Sequence to fold (628 residues):
Amino acid sequence: MEFGIFTIGDVTSDPTDGTTVTENQRIKNTVEIAKKAEEVGLDVFSTGQHHNPPFVAPANPAVLLSNIAAQTEKLHLTTSTTLITTTDPVRIAEDYSYAQHLSDGRLSLMMGRGNTGPVYPWFGKDIRSGIPLAVENYNLLYRLWREKNLDWEGKFRTPLNGFTVTPWPLDDVPPFVWHGSIRSPEIAEQAAYYGDGFFHNNIFWPTSHTARMVQLYRQRYEYYGHGTASQAIVGLGGHIFMRKNSQDAVREFRPYFDNAPVYGHGPSLEDFSTQTPLTVGSPQQVIERTLSFRDWAGDYQRQLFLIDHAGIPHKTVLEQLDLLGEEVIPVLREEFAKNRPADVPEAPTHESLVLRHREGRDPIPGGGPGSRAFTDREQARAAEKSGADQA
Amino acid sequence: MTGQTMKVVAVTTSLSEDSTTLKLTDRILAGLTSVGESVGIEVATENINIRNLASALTDMTLTGFRSEQLETVFATVAEADAVVTVSPVYKVAPVGLHTLFWQLIDEKALANKPVLIASTGGTPRHSLAGEAALRPMLSYLKGIVVPTTVFAATDDWGSMEGGRALSARVRQAAEELVSLTSTIIGASRDDLAEVAEGSHSEPVSRRAGGATSGAVRGVDDEFDPDRITPFAQLLEG
Fold:
């Protein structure tokens, strides 16, 4: 199982002293956070994509991730998320392919739609087409990374004739793709259809809701014949703030919570901690809460924590990383490994994907022979044919 | 229609313990029960006070998700056969807390449900607030709002004449609600009866009983693997 952090790159004033870091400082801090993540033994660093204040997450995450790749050895780099709706799939294919080469395969992507209405028209798109854009654009991206001299025509982009992505993905194997969604069943379905991973950010929303999304994805993954439901590739977020003493954690975090963008000035810290997976307390409390995710999500592959938003000072974020590395992650690794069925796969790596590709075990979109989806299609076709014969 | 139960849920914003709004709710629910009796329908009533949901509604506005308490209340409304909404009028509109409830409940929450609008205010000048603000909102939620709305001003509680007029309006609105609701649930129960007889399944009387009418209405589960749109279909556009 992989453990890491994800950032949305917000530039928010620190409510305790009114100071705000500069964009330049926040960007440099982000690189330092990623390097520190590797240093303390985390596996994954993930960044969002943004085009508007108050965020300085990159408009093209491949730029930031390549910079971090150059300064790290093992850290796996990913996005949370790459905006598949408003970014040209051709540029996604080429930019991340390039970053995949630079990072020697330490790269994956998480697809997301983005939820900020004004962003869409800046790129000539319409938020009302969010789902159709995600569907068509990802289908194009999927093909761009697998078919050379591609001829393609769709609704949202100029056609392509004999187009080949440059550079071609490392070792003929595209980066692994996760699909992230908070509440759209279509996206869980999309992830299952392709045999890709499904990530739920698991913050700001009740567990009961997240559990249903994960279950839907698992069931459909099995339906499309990529494995059993328990073998589907699931990632979860988590929202934490720690101090050795839980009372200190609550006292220190409360002003950031009360004034945070998104949920600030609303529910109390206590209510929010009950209603959502937010955990503010000691490392032991974070360990217990995180281990409980398995009760409703099943054995999963990737756990990312949010630790750096709402104006929390950089120094504090680095201290959170120390606590994660020293006290939390080692225990989580050990505990999550216990009773984990042998047939539940680890999170895909470039090496495992290359092996899978060479052995001809790549997932077949929509389900190959032997899957229930395949059988259903055959039956539907047969029924249609006999209906036509009778007529 | 004899022997049936009709489940009516009142959604009331009563800001103090002994408010005139709550009094009006009680009058209307009693009116419904009495109209029901006269035509042999048992009316089961329940009142939900929005005041108790004030924080949960604000939180949902800010965070986008509903507390367990709200989830339960929304389900109660979804399972009702008919709904009564009662609120005080502030500045020519139902108090914001009350409209917020209807703004946050699911789309189509009132589909196929007769709805009765009632409100209270200081003077009769507020009497069209329910018509102007709530009727379109409840129609948007697919509710079938009965023609008569009930408005009670201070005069209605104080004078003999006002009291009599209010009683008459309550009676009129209650008759409209009960008669429309019994038509709708009666029809859907008969449909069920045919289906059940056709397939020789369990006795109709049990499945179509008042207690299960909410379950018959059903609540959409968009995360049900059997009900989602298959991806191939999404891909075709």
Notes: The longest helix of chain B spans residues 160-198. Residues 195-218 of chain B have pLDDT under 50 and may be disordered. Chain B touches chain A through 22 residues (CB under 8 Å).
